[in-house]
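Lab notebook, bench 4. Still working through the backlog of constructs that have no structural model yet. Next entry is a single chain of 364 residues. Request: give me the structure tokens for it.
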Amino acid sequence: MNGKKRTRWQRRPGTIGGKLPWNDWRNASSWRKATQFLLLAINIYIGVTFYYWVRYFETAGTSVYIPRPGGIEGWLPIAGLMNIRYTLETGFLPPIHAASMLLLVAFILISLLLKKAFCSWLCPVGTLSELLGNLGKKVFGRNFTLPRWLDIPLLSLKYLLLSFFLYIALSMPAQGIQYFLMSAYGMIIDVKMLDFFRHIGSATLIFVVVISVLSLFIRNAWCRYLCPYGALLGLFSLLSPFKIRRNADSCIDCGKCAKNCPSHIPVDRLIQVRTVECTGCMTCVESCPVASTLSFSLQTPPGAQDNGKPLWRQKTLSGVAMTLLVLGILFATIGYAIYANVWDTPVPDHMYFQLIPKAKMIGH
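Model written out:
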């Protein structure tokens, strides 16, 4: 015996085997999943209604009419980037697809405050990728991690794609952007996006199948290696004041946080997580069995010094607070777009009757 006094650390209140029950209101993972499925349902609704809206114009008004869902603008990130350039250069909101810009700005704001929370709390593609990973783990008993010599080079692919899209979106002057987005192609760019999936080519279909199969084995394969959207938000997330922070004194070195991290971050060896790969999913926080040792916060959690202060006084975000913040920023942005009268497209119906039926023939 070395005579060193052993401290018994307090386990997190309400935990069973180190984890909170799924129906405990303090369980951040449950709040995140609820938010994910809410946004997934909203996006499915957007996709279905947009399809029927397009069909109305393709059939010359003989099919059922459903108003165009403004949320489809969230699927036009390149138009959003172009319009950011337009607004910065002119000082005015763009004449068309302004909502795509405002939604992109909202997602950037979320990243500036809350790491890449958009990816793990809101993105429907991220949700589907996560579900595939969970399915693969259930079927095969585990997910696989690529060796570092392969993982690190593959991580660069999404930044190469991001550079390509940034060049396309930001190299045009404001006047060129206005001409492009007000052209026939620009006015129905959302329809062209739908046609990309409706009339998917063999090569694209094979790619989607391959990525889906890979996601069964490699958790979030698309998000980790190829998503340029996530790459952009990750760069902004470097400025986030909220980070995963660990109290090294109260940490019992069980390694559960690192083992459960979907981004393979060695949380158990870091005092604060700065990496662009952190999505703020709080899975590591929910895996920690010790009270006030790991948190998504502005300061290091108090550990043994915790005297029962509420989380907000510890400058720590709970699952409830994260849900309110990410949804609050999103819906406040939508509210502003509606107030500014830019949520709906200004293109008149008679233009859609002319353009949508011949969308396949309209090029850049």
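Notes after review: Residues 1-6 have pLDDT under 50 and may be disordered. The chain has 17 helices and two strands. Flag for follow-up if needed.
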